Amino acid sequence: xxxxxxxxxxxxxxxxxxALGVSFLGAAELLIGGTAGLSLVVNQWLPASxxxxxxxxxxxxxxxxxKQMGRAFTLKTLICIALVSVLSDVLKLIVHFEHLPEWFAAxxxxxxxxxxxxxxxxxxxxxxxxxVLALYFENRFGVSSGKVILALDLIVFSFxxxxxxxEKALISLLGFVAITSILERYHKKKAPKIQTVPSxxxxxxxx
Length: 207
Hints:
Blueprint: H1 2-27, H2 34-45, H3 50-58, H4 61-68, H5 71-94, H6 102-122, H7 130-141, H8 145-160, H9 166-186
Helix pairs in contact: 1-5, 1-6, 2-3, 2-8, 3-5, 4-5, 4-7, 6-9, 7-8, 8-9
């Protein structure tokens, strides 16, 4: 029971760090990656809170999560998405940043998000979206989740160029690099799953 409680407390801490990182980036009006970044982009076009868009955009990824990662992982991911959505909106009401340097917000915000993701990944959870894809590629093919996330973040970056000034978009890249750096250093890459042939089906030859 104690280990179970500590695991969920770690998940809550991870979600809080991510929500705080989003607050840093949002206060500086910078772009962030993943479904959170897409949520901020959509939030510029359509009237709704970040938390609402973040939750809605993540819903389609649950099909992949259920099929490839299992129900326990998917349930934890759903809870994490809901937590980050709520915490992000709450922090927006109670935490205010003034005169925040953009480079500082990008570095600190990205580092907080990266640290939060490490805590979620270690406890078999994620924030859905590209996190699910990254962990799937890592589990299946042994590809670093940090590199997968960075590659997909660059796609989000290209969409962000449509609404964000070039200077802000370029500074946002610092946040992307910070997230990847944290994941590469503190999240252990899993070996790919290799399908083995049962011994009963093996063909034995002799000289």
